[in-house]
What we know:
By secondary structure, the protein is of the alpha+beta class. The protein is 29% helix and 22% strand. It contains five helices and eight strands. The protein has helices at residues 2-11, 62-78, 87-98, 107-116, 129-138, and strands spanning 22-23, 36-39, 122-125, 141-147, 153-163, 169-174, 183-186, 195-200. Strands 1, 2, 3, 4, 5, 6, 7 and 8 form an eight-stranded antiparallel β-sheet that branches. Strand 4 and strand 5 (153-163) form a beta hairpin. It is globular, with a radius of gyration of 17 Å. The chain starts with a helix and ends with a strand.
Amino acid sequence: MKEIKNSINKYKYFPHKSGFPFKSLKDLPKLSSNSKFNSLTGIKNINWITTGETSTLASRHCGAVAATNTFLYMNNFYNDGEEDFEKIEIFKTLHKMIGNGPIFSIDSYLKAFFKKLGYDLKSKKIKNIDQYKSEIDKGNVIAILIARGIVQWHWVLGVGYIEYEDGNFYAQIIDGWHNSCDKFYKIKNNKSWLSARSFYI
């Protein structure tokens, strides 16, 4: 039993990119006139941060990366993308608060960070696909903790969705590995994530 526990501790929270079924738009089924594709405003213009460019500063840090990307989206949405900061400095500040993984929630850290900036950040627990769609339609970004079995966890941001006529549903995500919004994750039900919360001011 001790050997099993040590093995899990050794590999848990070190997600490999190939372990998660993320797809690009070109690899998804073709959209029809009855498909719905909705994305948050301005996500193609954001210079997202990744675990790779912060790998010399931290490890197992997808939570801090997701928190930083949440800030980057909020700044773009509420401040029209005006930047008077270095994103790496934002990451350093948030990582100092959050630390390395495993981390099951980034909610309180984000709220504390925004409070220091003079903003009252609010959040809402997302329990199902309908709530996910509703929050995206309102313009709210969603932090999602997903799992691939018991040994791989990873934080991503929900920034849109595709809903097909046949009911298949894909969340558009910022995966934390690529500076791109061209990644999609198929969601079947609320069991497709461990935790999901929307953020807004």
